[in-house]
Amino acid sequence: MKRSLMMVMTVLMILGTLPLLTASAAGAVKTPADSPVLKDRNETPEQHDARMAWWREAKFGMFIHWSLFSQLGGEWKGKSYGGYAEWIMYNAKIPIAEYAAFAKEFNPVKYNAEQWVMSAKNAGMKYMVITAKHHDGFAMFKSAASPFNIVDATPFGRDPLKELAEACRKHDMKLGFYYSQNFDWHHPGGALNNWDPASKGDYDKYTDELVIPHLREILRNYGDIAVLWFDMGGGNAEQHARIHKAVLECNPRIITNDRLGGPFHGDTSTPEQNIPANGIPGKDWETCMTMNGTWGYRKHDESWKSTGELLRNLCKIASKGGNYLLNVGPNELGEIPGGSLERLAQVGEWMKVNGAAIYGTSAAPFSHTLSWGWVTSKSNLLYLCVNKLPADRRLTLPELTTRISKAYFLADSKKEPLTVNTADNGIPTIVVPESSPVVFGGNPVVIVAELKGGPMATILDFVFPGMPEVAISGSEIHVQVPQSTDLTKLAPTYNTGSPLVTGNPASGSTNDFTKPQAYTITAADGATRAYRVTVVSTPGVVGVANPSFEKFDFLAEYDETLGRNPSGATWAFKQTKQGDEVGINILAGGPIHAPPAPDGSLHSAFIRGAGNGISQSINFDKGAYTVSFNAVKRNGYKTAVPLTVTVDGAPVMTLESSQIGETWGSYTSTVFAVTSGAHTLGFANGEGDGMNMIDNVQVKCCR
Ligand code: FHN
């Protein structure tokens, strides 16, 4: 039976000669000595790694969004508001005094810190991060800096963070605090309240007299706080520096995220509601995600992710080297919703058996994804998290150069060996017997592969000009290139990932790919493997943006992204409005050609925030083109801004706000003709109250 294994990966090619950016980080996150992350604290890589050690081991944490918004549950004056429930004050434009009055009703008498900690612990989570202050400005802790806090302003009168800190200490759970340092809709000077004049004030005063004192309180009064989770960068570099200094004075070992802003990179990157397709090589990262459709409690939101989905996310994130911060939104009484508790308990059952596949693991040392599941690694072990057993029951690892000595189900205490063979052209394969007692198809099933040691090298890094897609099925490799590519002149580079592996043909050689090419590769262990490479061209596509580009991170990331610009292409980077974000990721530079010349161009850009725009000068061949891209209204924002695409300043497409969906949609501009030479492609959100984001920009010819 033909194997159904099909792995798809997008490889990055920079004009055919520049080094490959491999997809997933191999091994534990290593902080390179020149990493900007080290500059935040002037650390050596060793000091940084030591500080990050518990977090890298932990892998799985609980995010808790809890504040006055939980009292409203997404509804105000009988009306339910869309977007995230914790944004209700903003979405409904609730006056400050009226919102603050809810504090008198906030009495979460069912709050039981120990129960919360145990529900996280039993789920296999190793740390918790709770909103000490969200954008509504309400402090969930006793504060001398502002009376707008849970102890002074509510009948509850208790300090839930104190109780949580005690319970965490008792149950060996790390505790982190989320703090919204920029958006504060209550206190004068805080950002983003544009509906109540009482919010007017001085941002410096707000920073120095509220934010910094608050931070000192939460970092000094609750014992050893492990994480400070900033949210929504904004403000200026001096304000960031003052905040950063104050935080480190309180706790020099604290782990911070990347959302303070300014020159601070933070220890962790924080992709939100998405899993970066290629992980974030060289940086620690944590995907935060809701369990239903909102962070804060919403009364009738039952759109729960299934336990299987949560576990698949956990495996997928671990296989790419990240942590998973999974959210719960307790209600006005202080109870975590039943839908969350039920799933947490089920996740915990799985973790009891399979936790070894997650804790302390690193990204799989492969640059290609696997259609049957995900792989994590730890020393000489690979953990295969099987999501979908192929019909032929064979799990192949085409990139593995080290032999497998033994394989067994992680759940099997007897470690009964599964058949391992290399019959398929030397490709390591684990065969799951028909008689397997393990049921596939529900939650991921974990198989352990013990390796004979040695490098777990990547051997399949074929790289072609023009940002092609590479799909591997056993020893068959299919490469998709733009239609305009001259198949007789393709010059692939070939990166073994290990100095011990040799291959044929040599890197950079020119091949005639009008017919399939054969490659023979000698792996580190001396075994040879033959691969057949077939190149297929895609009609109409000249430049293809990386479809897996999923970076919607915050400002600190953008600099890095630009810093990674491998081609020296001159994308313009323009931030027109403080507090919002705009960024460009350059996957390859160079001109966009009309056929038949090979294309080296692809562009992935994003903008977010009203009034923001980006533009790029691109060299075109004379011809007619369209621009297509994905766009979405930013969830949680009341969006009413149009989006315009321009060429040389002239609109080639205007999307009214009503035309842009709340889930990602694809849009294509009208055809525009250009003469040969440089032309400026631009995207801009209109001014107003809202936000659109774009991604995956493709320039296509010949329409
Ligand atoms: O606006 C917030 C949102 O309410 C939530 O707190 C998330 C969690 O990462 N952060 C912000 C949006 O990026």
pLDDT < 50 runs, ≥5 residues? 1-27, 539-591, 593-603
Helix fraction by DSSP (H/I, runs of at least 4): 10-25%
Largest sheet: 8 strands, parallel
Class computed from helices, strands and strand pairing: alpha+beta
Euclidean distance between termini CA atoms: 42 Å
Q: What is the mean predicted local confidence, pLDDT? A: 78
Using only C-alpha atoms, the radius of gyration works out to: 26 Å
Bound molecules: ligand FHN
Shape: globular
Strand order of the largest sheet: 8-7-6-5-2-11-10-9
Proportion of residues in extended strands = 25-35%
Please work out how many helical segments DSSP would assign: 13
Q: Please report the total strand number as a whole number.
A: 36
